[in-house]
Design a protein that fits this description.
By secondary structure, this protein is of the alpha+beta class. It is about 15% helix and about 35% strand. The strands form 2 sheets. The protein has a 5-stranded mixed beta sheet with strand order 2-3-4-5-6. It has a two-stranded antiparallel sheet with strand order 1-7. About 15% of the residues are buried.
Length: about 170
Amino acid sequence: MATPLIVNVVELLRWPGTTKDVVLSIASTDLEFGESRISDEPIDVNLHLEALSNGVTVNGTTSATWVGECRRCLAPMSDRMTVELSELYQQIPDDSEAYAINNDQINLLPMVRENLLLAVPLGPLCREDCPGFCPQCGKDLSQTACSCDNSVVDPRWAALETLKGALKDPS
């Protein structure tokens, strides 16, 4: 399957300092995210390629929409993220983080895919002060308050409460 993210760099490699821009919008299905948290909305790619004596640098941004759930109340969430990219492609990679140039072409797809997946928030919050669920009755505290007694101390921490009281009253 041909991908718009395979770029022929034969002209770039002939003359160091030569540049090329890649600006396009691609379907998220082209990047094969599978069950990840990247939405089906188009992904915007805006890259600037520059030839060096030992390879090609790729700088720019890519934007995509992530989807997920609030880690406290499980409310559905989504947001647009923009990821800054700066990578190196080399004929024979001498750096473990450099990508390879194969047959005078660079495949930008793995680089874009990896950077987007690494930028997805792992534990997003719908809002900073989200109260989440009541640990006793399970009500969503961001929707309604509950009448549970939250002063009950977990028995595993009871010994620390006793110690705390002893430290306050040294007699």
